[in-house]
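Record type: monomer structure entry
Structure origin: computed from sequence
Chain ID: A
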Amino acid sequence: MAADLGELLVPFMPTIRVPKTGDRVYKSECAFSFDSPESEGGLYVCMNTFLGFGREHVERHYRKTGQSVYMHLKRHVKEKATGAAGGAIPRRRNGKVFLDLELNRDFNGEDYEYEDEAKLVIFPDHFEIPLPNIEELPALVTIACDAVLNAHSAYKKQEPESWEEEIQVSRHARSLRQLDNGVRIPPSGWKCQKCEMRENLWLNLTDGSVLCGKWFFDGSGGNGHALEHYREYNYPLAVKLDTITPDGADVYSFEEEEAVLDPHISEHLSHFGIDMVQMQRRTENGHHTDNNPRPRVSEWEVIQESGMKLKAVYGSGYTGIKNLGNSCYLSTVLQVLFSIPDFQRMYVGNLQRIFDYSPLDPTQDFATQMAKLGHGLLSGQYSKPPMKSELIEQVMKEEHKHLQRGISPRMFKALVSRGHPEFSSNRQQDAHEFFLHLINLVERNSAGSENPSDSFRFLVEERVQCCQSRRVRYTQRVDYCMQLPAPIEAASNREELLTYEAKRKEAEENTRAPPEPVRARIPFTACLQAFTEPENVPDFWSSALQAKSAGVKTSRFASFPEYLAVQIKKFTFGVDWVPKKFDVAIDVPDFLDLSRLRATGLQTGEEELPDLLPPIVLPEDTRAPEIDEGAVMQLAEMGFPLEACRKAVYYTGNMGPEMAFNWIIAHMEEPDFAEPLTLPSMLEPLPSTSDSPMGATPLDNSPPEESVAILTSMGFPRNHSIRALKATNNNLERALDWIFTHPAEEESDALSDMADSQSNDNTFSNLNSHSDSTLSPDRDMSGPRVKDGPGRYELFALISHMGASTMSGHYVCHIKKEGRWVIYNDHKVCLSERPPKDLGYIYFYRRLSSS
């Protein structure tokens, strides 16, 4: 028999692999469905790719790849037998055959036991070889099977790759000198003290200076003022401002020239008014920990409809999503999106086509994982009502178990959060930010096909007026979410709030228990009124006056989307950097008419601001840029012309000889390859992109030659690089992203795809922070696709948040389906008795038909 098995496996031996370090073994979940070893058909793990497939999908993988050998895993879960005395009868378990396999059910481990079964299956004849079978199998096959059976599950072990170096503690951390200069850093509104850059900002931990970093390959931009500051004053440590969380921050040592750890970061930041200890207290364990938790308790009860006997619902569209640990922000957004026909049609309607044309590794394909998740939610396959016998058993045992199990989004979360510093963590996140992140991913992955995010996309018209000359400028930009302020001053119970605040202060001064908290009740009309009010434009430069002046901006809808997302701006940061949430209730209407907010464009009697740019302000230090001469000499020793080496090092941002060498290889054939380095930006004025009050990119704007050179050094065509920079307001990070999502042959569709999602403080939530004056709803061929129509809407979903801030708490969503409201609370799906429409965080409206 041993010889027979050996001969049977000989033709397939070259395809059987032993998992190596870094290989992920997907033995707990199918790549195309939510089947697992506990499913009726078990799970098949390919012995070459280590991907897992359910019974109905394994044949597809065999036909596509020709891989014939799979390991079939089956877990049998049984309830323990009960003895006469009521205790469980001890029963010998089958040894763990495949280790580190997580249970897919919320079992009480003391009440259940399981037996694991494994065997090799050879396709297409389905020849089965039970495991373990050490004596009869070839040695290589035995080793491979043992490695697969004992491998960690694909998502259990999240360790850095072997090539990543461990970050070391800085030698300056313990003895860092901090100047007592009274500097306090606000929680927002930062800009570089030398060039007014507002991104890639670093706080020097010695004197509190806020300065910009350099441009790096990852796209973060700056003019290197933080490094210049170190060279001038020798203050060694700086922390990146937008990375500060209760868990730590990104710290860089200029003297050690690398990212470092600072064990005393909390103490160092508190010197400048940033209280990480207080931030941690507010967010530990996902709950608010103030001395007075009552408003949060009430909020939790109301939003989750606690105390009500909610009826569970099952079937298509009523499948819950398991909470992976602070993943409810993801679950609620997905539940809402897959209740929209455009997303259902794109991913579930095209399921077979997406699966058939999926890449060899479907776990890394966005469309495949969206289709898998959409099918899991809408098929009803994972939301079946309990058997009558199960209900009778519960009654007999006088116990109640929630029989809804839901689906696990682990594979999907790993894919969409990859490379994102926040979403890839296990911390709670902002559902609004994840909504924009997911819409952005849909945009990127919908090139050349139906784009369901079209239903959310709309155009915003921004009108800026110079207060002195009264002239105006109109620009348009793309957006996906309307942000409404919550003006506390407009609360209908204002007197009650003032009385409460006075009592609270008095109790605080006299160390007495605080009074019963009062929730502000704000009319929705007041939120809309605050939205329409003009806002000041910081650092406005008037082209009519040729000088800085006061300017105001108003925003209106240039088009209305088919589905409108409305975020209530409930969250802010206190002066102590502690995130705070406004405890407000807003009477959000079921029907909404925004027709009066339709943009009108340039009006009769209005005079436009001249299309002029402010004068170029040269930096005080106009010396030639510093170039790493060591890297230059290394390249010159290879035989390349000295001037070419200098240009290579300069245009790659002093990022080392390897990057410079790649630049040389890409530019060797250019006629001016060995010509001396010339910098047009220092010899002749270039148009500035920061002077336009809206950040709009004028049509005649030429990107900085340095930026063009950096992109071309990466191998991108010069014309395509210039187009990318113009389309992204000369932002290198977004330009790189634009290039990858806009192949050169598809430039005619350039403006239809969006760049990276970002949250900002505008009244709209902007995926494209640049404002493009060329966008127009009348230019369908060159502008973004919008589904314009009447501005009348009906509420169909809301996402609610419970907790003190977006860094903690819990999310649930309510969706109106078949004329009734349904609450989705992780894996539990029930009919809603009292949807908390006044406590929502994000509201979703669908456009009413014109009839």
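Annotation 1: The longest strand covers residues 69-79.
Annotation 2: The chain is about 25% helix and 15% strand.
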